[in-house]
């Protein structure tokens, strides 16, 4: 079952990466970047033996990644 989930996560990363390179809008690129790294983190989490502390660390990393994307959009002075 883990192999099937890993396959679909890798497929999702590939499809979102294609969307990232096709996107004309910076907002689409930022959200694609976030989704790619979210899926990569989930892939690493699924393929490794973890405990609750590691899962909590991953949740914190995902929150910080989303926060960086939002702050970039808020404080970007150039017109996107």
User: How much helicity do the residues have?
Assistant: over 70%
Number of domains: 1
Total DSSP E strands: 0
Order of helices and strands: HHH
Give the uncertain stretches in residue-range form. none
Shape estimate: flat
List keywords for this structure.
80 residues; mainly alpha; 3 helices
List the helices and strands and how they pair.
Blueprint: H1 2-22, H2 26-47, H3 52-75
Could you please describe the fold and organization of this structure?
The protein has 80 residues and is mostly helical. The protein has one domain. 84% of the residues lie in helices and 0% in strands. It contains three helices and no strands. Helix 1 runs antiparallel to helix 2 and helix 2 runs antiparallel to helix 3. The longest helix is centred in the last third of the chain and has 24 residues. It is flat. The mean pLDDT is 78.
Question: What is shown here, in short?
Answer:
The protein is mainly α and 80 residues long. The protein is built from 3 helices and no strands. The termini are far apart.
């Amino acid at each position: 079952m883990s192999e099937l989930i890993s396959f679909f996560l890798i497929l999702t990363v590939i499809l979102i990466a294609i969307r990232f390179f096709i996107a004309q809008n910076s907002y689409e690129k930022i959200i694609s970047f976030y989704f790619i790294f979210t899926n990569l983190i989930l892939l690493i989490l699924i393929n490794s033996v973890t405990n609750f502390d590691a899962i909590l660390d991953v949740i914190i990393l995902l929150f910080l990644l989303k926060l960086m994307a939002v702050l970039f959009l808020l404080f970007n002075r150039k017109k996107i």
